[in-house]
Amino acid sequence: MTPLRAAHVRLIFDTDMGNDVDDAVALAMIHALESRGEAKLLAVTVTKDNRWAAPFIDAMNTFYERGDIPIGVVRNGKTPEDANMIRVPAVRLLSDGTFVYPHDLTDGKDAAEATGLLRRVLSKEKDGAVVVVQVGFSTNLARLLDSGPDDASPLAGRALVQRKVRLLSIMGGAFPEGKPEYNIETDIPSAKKLLAEWPTPIVASGYEIGNKVVYPASSILKDYGYVADHPLAESYREYMKMPYDRPMWDPTATLYAVRASSFSLSPRGTITVDDTGRTHFAANPQGRHQYLTATPEQANAALRAIIELASRPPDRLMPPPKERKSQPVPAAR
Ligand SMILES: [Ca+2]
User: Fold this and answer.
1) How far is the CA of 15 from the centre of ligand 1 (A)?
2) 322 alpha carbon to ligand 1 midpoint, in Å?
3) pLDDT digits (tens, 9 = 90+) for 80-119
4) Which residue among 157, 167, 188, 319 is least crowded, i.e. fewest CB within 10 A of its CB?
5) Ligand 1 centre distance from Cα of residue 18 (Å)
6) What's the pTM?
7) DSSP per residue, 70-136
């Protein structure tokens, strides 16, 4: 295992896994960033209220040799609909009756409730150490803000976040103006609350950024064959009829959280959410919010990084160092 760098980013990944395949790409990326010593995944929390999201995430984490990462799920949340991209890989069996993708969390109903898990994980971290990546709805983080003291921490939610979290990187909205975006529109009250009350800096990757960073089907077809069954490649095939290219909305927010220099930032300001789910940005030097911007060169470089990270094999399947061609030793930053 690569030792963690002193400057590694301690991440919580909050996802609506199952609604779009780019969440799965983002999770694979995070595992590669951890293998490279750039990040440490503390927990995954889920805002899609479907029983197969957590088992699929556990299967992905187990594939990348981190099956003990805590997973928390929303209760009474949005988008309970079935989704092949999480259910099929989570339930598929080998002829001997064991899982193709081993995992021990076999039903989201058995997972921890997300808000309580977030409080437990945050309370154990050093002050200002945590970066939260939210690539689904704001349900869990809005509930975290409203949470009261408990066994994990005497702090109420907002104070706990203020103490432990350095940055919230979200995929959500459209900037500087645009149509209502899915992650915001699906839970408007929670998004309003998050943007009004979250006490740390927030950086948003808007719809327009992921639209510039389009993952090619050719990579799914050729870069995941290092193993006969790959949970991300299978999920991708189950999400829509192959071959298809897909915008990388969530991976851009994830990449920014760990490699901030990948994009440029808007001026500081305040993002608000209206009753239709549209986001509005008002510049203000004292504002806590910014949104990503990307030149064509930055978008191309981000796509290359996302492909390289997502398709990096788990450590057990990496070739010995002398045979590596495309996995340079990380440069000091
Ligand atoms: Ca998502």
Assistant:
1) 6
2) 37
3) 999 999 999 999 999 999 999 999 999 999 999 999 999 9
4) 319
5) 8
6) 0.95
7) -EEEEEEEE-----HHHHHHHH-B-TTSSBSS--S---GGGSEEHHHHHHHHHHTSPTT-EEEEE-S
